[in-house]
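Database export, one record per block. Field names are fixed; values are copied verbatim from the stored entry.
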Amino acid sequence: MTTNAGSAQASPSQTLSRGIRALEILAEVQRPLTIAELADAMGVHRSVAYRILRTLEDHSLLVRDDAGRVQPGPGLAVLARGVSRSLQTAALPELTQLANSLMMSAFVAVWDHEDCVTLVTVDPRHAGAVVVQHPGSRHPINRGAPGIAIQSALSESEWGILAPGTEYRTEAAEARRRGYAASHDEVIAGVSSLAVPVRIPGGRPAALAVVYIRADQDPDEVAAALAASAARIETQLG
C-alpha cells in the first residue's frame, strides 16, 4: 500500500506545541510563574507541564529561581538574535537615533499570521516616563499604527490574497496616500503611535514605529524622520 506524500499532511506535534505555548505564556505575563500556575495557563496536568519544562530547561530556554518559579532563559536570547538578523542589524542604529532625537520609544514590528509582533525596540537614554514596547509583544495586525503601516505597503487586493479573512482597514488606504499611519488608544489605553512601512526584499513588509503618551513634535515631522530612517534601512537590506 502506497501513500500519496504530496497530499498527506503531517500531524502537528502536541508536545512541541505545548512547549512553545509555555514559552509564549511566560513571555506574555513578564513575571516568573510557579509550575502549577503555568500548568493552569496551558490547560494541562502539572505532571505534563513538568516534563515539558524539564526539556526546555535542558536547552536553557527557561530557568527556575530559588523558589522553583520558572521564567524565560538565556537560550531564548541566542535564538532571538537569529530572527530577522539582517533587519535587526539594519534597524538598530536607526532606532537608537530616533529614540534619542524624538525622546520616544522606537521599534520595528513584523507581521506574524494575524498579529503584529515587536522585533526590536530602543528607549531614549535620557527621558522621564516613556512607553516601553517589549520585544515579543504582539497585537492584532489590523489594530494600531504598525499594523496599518504594514497593510499600507500592500493594495487591498494584495492584502486579500496574503491575509484572507483579515480586515484591510480604510486607514491603510489613507496611510498609503499620506506616507504614514497614526493611531491612538487602540493597543494601549492613552497611548499614541506613528508608523511607516519597511519593505523587505523577498519578504513581507514590516513597520518602523514610535509610541508616546504626549508629543510636542508635529506628527508630520515625526513621520518624516521615520520615513527617512525606513528608507535607509531598506537601502541596507538591498
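Remark 1: Strands lie at 62-64, 70-72, 105-112, 115-122, 138-140, 181-184, 192-198, 206-212.
Remark 2: The longest helix spans residues 219-237.
End of record.
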